[in-house]
Design goal:
The protein is of the alpha/beta class. It contains 5 helices and 10 strands. The protein has helices at residues 9-16, 33-41, 74-81, 91-98, 144-150, and strands spanning 22-25, 48-56, 61-67, 70-72, 86-88, 116-119, 128-134, 137-141, 153-155, 158-160.
Length: 164
């Protein structure tokens, strides 16, 4: 599939910073998540990174980058970042913080600057697919870009995804 996707705030952010990336459009499926996109693109879901908008006990937003086949232990995350608690934002709140629609959230070019945390094992991968700023569109990048450009702090809060 050699379809080109229009410029998004995320791809503009990457281009402005001269970051090389590959484009990976796919057929978006409502609630399909990273497992669906990995399947569509023939990638291991471990290397497809989801961008999650969460909030702490004071409703301050934060971004967590997690393997597509893992869940976030909010208890472990809260402990590591010094918060009392962490929970997912409601979709409309996440949309407001990021400027993206849930399902198309990228950590790059967000409306609001938020602290970014990355599951440490993601940094050991040679390349990841991460949302490019719209539903049905991922970009391939070196995971170190998340640390270099976003100041992403490594954490260890992954739980195995329970598939039903």
């Amino acid at each position: 599939m050699a379809k080109h996707v229009s410029l998004t705030p995320a791809t503009q952010f990457l281009k402005d910073r001269k970051v090389a990336f590959t484009e990976h459009p796919y057929a978006y499926l409502e609630r399909g998540g990273a497992l669906h996109s990995a399947s569509e693109l023939g990638w291991d879901p471990y290397a497809v990174v989801k961008t999650l908008i969460l909030q702490d006990q004071d409703a301050k937003p934060l971004v967590v980058l997690m393997h597509g086949n893992r869940k976030v232990s909010t208890k472990n995350l809260a402990r590591q970042i010094g918060a009392k608690s962490v929970e997912p934002c409601a979709p409309e709140v996440a949309n407001r913080h990021s400027g993206y629609r849930v399902g198309g959230t990228s950590p790059f070019g967000t409306r609001r600057v938020m602290p970014v945390y990355i599951e440490s094992t993601i940094l050991a991968l040679p390349k990841i697919l991460i949302n490019g700023g719209q539903r049905g569109y991922l970009v391939g990048i070196d995971p170190q870009v998340c640390v270099d450009l976003l100041g992403a702090r490594p954490v260890q809060c992954a739980l195995a995804e329970v598939l039903t």
